[in-house]
Design a protein that fits this description.
This is Transcriptional regulator, AsnC family. InterPro entries: AsnC-type_HTH_dom, Dimeric_a/b-barrel, Tscrpt_reg_AsnC-like, Tscrpt_reg_AsnC/Lrp_C, WH-like_DNA-bd_sf, WH_DNA-bd_sf. Keywords: DNA-binding, Transcription, Transcription regulation. Pfam families: AsnC_trans_reg, HTH_AsnC-type. The protein is an alpha+beta fold. It folds into two domains: about 70 residues, Arc Repressor Mutant, subunit A; about 70 residues, Lrp/AsnC effector binding domain/regulation of amino acid metabolism (RAM) domain (Alpha-Beta Plaits, 2-Layer Sandwich), CATH 3.30.70.920. The protein is about 35% helix and about 15% strand. It is built from seven helices and four strands. The protein has a four-stranded antiparallel sheet with strand order 2-3-1-4. The longest helix is centred in the middle third of the chain and has 13 residues.
């Protein structure tokens, strides 16, 4: 059986052979280091992750070596984390998504996060400010299964209190496309 944790942690290995990517390129990167070509490449890969470097270069109108160097740099810098398939958890039998805010005993955040990472149904854990210390996204097969997952989380040493909410729907799914589109468009505008 495939672990849910492993499905969400597919990482690309850093690629070797990086070159000076600004040499001969008139697209200046923004403050975060992405320029319009980077954004257009990421949009293309978001739409069609199975495209090869040659096809990407053809569609972007740049040399194959430029695309390869850009991809290598994006992987090396941690912008492009890999090419995992987009999965429908409901179709896999995990139709219930819930979020929990955890209050953690002083000095236990790292230990609790490690233990949460060992629970297959825990998809994400974020350290937060505000009411709680950790924000957890989890999935379950049913309400009874969710209770089992919550009991497992509550049983982690250092967890003081939890507050769990069940997601009824996802009006806006996780996305980065609008940000990439803005970066791509900013590269097309003349400098003021």
């Amino acid at each position: 059986m495939i672990s849910l944790r492993n499905l969400f942690s597919i990482q690309a290995e850093p690629l070797a052979g990086l070159v000076n990517l600004n040499k001969g390129c008139d697209m200046a990167p923004n403050a975060e280091g992405l320029d319009a070509l980077d954004a257009r490449l990421l949009l293309l890969l978001s739409d069609e992750p199975r495209l090869g470097v040659l096809e990407c270069s053809r569609r972007l109108g740049v040399a194959r070596g430029t695309v390869q160097a850009r991809m290598d740099r994006l992987v090396q810098r941690g912008v492009l984390l890999g090419f995992p398939p987009e999965l429908d958890l409901a179709a896999m039998g995990y139709g219930l998504t819930a979020f929990a805010v955890l209050e953690i005993a002083q000095g236990h955040r790292g230990l609790v996060a490690d233990q949460l990472g060992a629970i297959d149904e825990v998809c994400e854990v974020h350290a937060t400010t505000g009411q709680g210390d950790l924000f957890v996204r989890m999935v379950a097969r049913s309400n009874a299964d969710l209770q089992r997952v919550i009991d497992e989380i509550v049983g982690v040493p250092g967890v003081r209190r939890t507050s769990t909410s069940i997601a009824l729907s996802t009006p806006v799914a996780p996305r980065v496309r609008p940000l990439l589109e803005r970066l791509a468009a900013e590269g097309d505008r003349p400098e003021p």
